[in-house]
Each structure stands twice: as structure tokens, then as C-alpha cells.
Amino acid sequence: MATLPTSLRQISLFLERFPGIGQKSANRLAFYLLRLPEQDLKDFAEHIIHLKARTKFCKICKNLTEEDICSICDDTQRDKSIVTVVEDALDLLSFETGNIYEGMYHVLHGRIDPLNHMTPDDIFISQLLDRVKKEGKDIHEIILATNPDMEGEATAMYIRNKLNEIKTSQKYKFRITRLGYGLPMGANLEYADYMTLKKSIEGRRDF
Q1: Is the CB of residue 63 less than 8 Å from the CB of residue 75?
Q2: What's the CA gap between 154 and 106, in Å, rounded?
Q3: How far apart, in whole angstroms, are the C-alpha atoms of residue 44 and residue 41?
Q4: ∠ CA 75-92-51 to the nearest 5 degrees?
Q5: CB neighbourhood size of 142 (10 A)
């Protein structure tokens, strides 16, 4: 039975551990790496070697960065009165695509998920609360943009309750909002599930 050379096989086995990558895709990627010019492969390996060492959390918003402060928090043109709370850095990138949002962020790097042993202490909630206690008088709105599933809703409700405690004790006046849910553009009502329709009705606005 034909087998891959040991080094190529080890690369393929490692790539299989990536999300959404099966054996065939891993083999194709391993062969692609093999065909790369040697300098490109060395550069790629160098970036992987330094990935952990150079990547750290922004001291303000916990976004991923190679500096103490990320480029968003360091941007004087951003609206610092609005803070959007997201589960991870990939969610932040989604907001940044298309320049649809000009405010600030706070990245939790997870969500409350008791079944997987994720508690509020395991993600960056306390850092968010400390930030709000310090900056709350300058914040006008905090948008809770966790995912619209059971764990995301639980995380948003927990944070909302904690933020309300801060508002009361510090007499801050910022709004706490949640992302709107409903039908996507181009959707057909016939194929919408009942929860999507329910949220669409609840979130309806004047027209």
C-alpha cells in the first residue's frame, strides 16, 4: 500500500486538525506546501514559529495585536463613546469589513458555556467591567454583539446585569443595546424558521 513520505505525512496529519479540513484536503495542502519555493516555505515557517510569541492581547480591548495597544484603540478617529462587545476577534473582523462601524470594541475570547466548563471568570468579562467603571462617563452606548444562540444570549444577559449594577452605583447614563435579529436581505418568508420570524416581529420599526 502506497504511503506518503514521513515528513509529508506528518504535515498532512497536522493539517487534518484544522477546522473543516479532512484527510483529502490535508493531503492536497501538504503537497501544495511541498511545491512552494523554498524561501516562501521558510518565510511561512518563520511566521508560524513566532506566532505565539509575537501575538498578544491589546491592553484596552483584548483584541489580538503585536503591540501593547491595537490599531483600533490607537486610532484617534474612532468613536470612543460606543463599545461593541464581541465573542472573538473574528467577529470584530466581520464588523470591520465594509467600514460599517466606527466605534470601539471589547473582545471576550469566549462565552459563558457551563457544559464546556466556561464560566465568566474564563473570559474577559471582568476586564470589560473594569474598563466601564473607569471610562463609563465617556461611554454613551455598549452594544452586546454576542452570537444569537443559547450561550451567546446567556453571556449577553450576564454582562447586561453586571453593567446595570455599574450604571446604578456610578450613576452612569450609557445605553445597553443588543444587536437586532430578523430576516436577512433577500430572504423568503416561506423558508424562515419561527424564531427568526418572532425576532423580526419584535424588532419591527416604523416605515
Answers
A1: no
A2: 17
A3: 5
A4: 85
A5: 24
Q: What is the SS3 assignment for 2-64?
A: CCCCHHHHHHHHHHCCCCCCCHHHHHHHHHHHHHCCHHHHHHHHHHHHHHHHHCEECCCCCCE
Quote the CA–CA distance of 158 and 193 in Å, as a whole number.
Answer: 27
The pLDDT assigned to 116 comes to 93
Q: Is 101 in contact with 72 (CB distance < 8 Å)?
A: no
Name the residue type at position 88: D
Spatial contact of 70 and 58, defined as CB atoms under 8 Å apart: yes
For residue 1, pLDDT beyond 70: no
pTM: 0.86
Q: Which cell numbers hold the place of 161?
A: 446585569
Kindly state the cell numbers that stand for 128: 470589560
Domains of the chain: 8-54 (1.10.8.420), 75-178 (3.40.1360.10)
CA distance 199 to 183: 9
**DSSP bridge pairs for 65:** 56
Backbone angles phi, psi at 17, to 5 degrees: -80, -10
Q: Is 11:45 a contact under the CB 8 Å cutoff?
A: no
Span 3-49, pLDDT tens digits = 789 999 999 999 999 999 999 999 999 999 999 999 999 999 999 99
Q: Of 65, 45, 161, nearest to 105 (Cα)?
A: 65
